[in-house]
Amino acid sequence: MEKRDRPVPAIWQGMVYASSMLAYIVICVVMNFGIDYYAIVLSAGSLILALIPMICWVLFLIICYRKGMLGYISKAFMINAVIIGALIASLSVYKLERNERRSHFDYNIWVSQPLSRGRMVDDLLRHNELQGLTKAEVIERIGLPDANSPFQADNQMVYELGQEGAYISLNRQWLLIDMNGAQIVTGYAIHTD
After folding, report:
1. Which of 62, 55, 44 shows the shortest CA–CA distance to 89?
2. CB of 51 within 8 A of CB of 131?
3. Which end of the chain is less packed: N or C, by CB atoms within 10 Å?
4. What mean pLDDT value characterizes the chain?
5. Which residues pair with 103 in a beta bridge?
6. SS3 sequence, the chain?
7. What digits encode the pLDDT tens for the residues 92-142?
8. pTM value?
């Protein structure tokens, strides 16, 4: 006796499509939250990771379509689904690029938006050698230190960097610049309270 393939009912076809899209959207929302929280910047690796969910979703739809699980859905509808998936993925790419731009040291933003300093401090320290500078030279490069700081000491300059994470964080970060008696920088560290 020969077994016949029964067509998948239309309601199940719609549920396969809708549930796969919902899963894709949830994955993208979680990924975008992570991109923001960890301030992930644009790189080849982060770009690939941002596109993997879309690629997997599109491959899943193609496989389901070829197996007849999405038989009633037209090719035009599938193309629209791919376009919607690409638009959703482009949000992740935009956020990666935005974080990349925000991570570069900008004197004007450093001075005018102290709570944005945490994103720029790595770039600042990577491209500006503070060791050996005088207090006046440090002020010229990164502005006046914060007046009200829990870490203020005579031979120390303190700059608040803002919250440790992008969303929920109870900890603040500070750039502490140590100087000797001649007001020359001897070291620096990022401190979390």
Report:
1. 55
2. no
3. N
4. 88
5. none
6. CCCCCCCCCHHHHHHHHHHHHHHHHHHHHHHHHHHHHCCCCCCHHHHHHHHHHHHHHHHHHHHHHHCCCCCCCCHHHHHHHHHHHHHHHHHHHHHHHHHHHHCCCCHHHHHHCHHHHHHHHHHHHHHCCCCCCEHHHHHHHHCCCCCCCCCCCCCEEEEEEEECCCCCCCCEEEEEEEECCCCEEEEEEEEEC
7. 999 999 999 999 999 999 999 998 898 899 999 999 999 999 999 999 999
8. 0.76
Model pLDDT for residues 57-97, shown as the tens digit of each residue:
999 988 888 887 776 677 788 888 889 999 999 999 999 99
pLDDT value at residue 12:
80
d(CA 62, CA 68): 10
CA distance 173 to 21: 39
Positive or negative: CA dihedral 120, 121, 125, 126: negative
Q: Return d(Cα 8, Cα 112) in angstroms, integer.
A: 61
Residue of higher predicted confidence among 189 and 16: 189
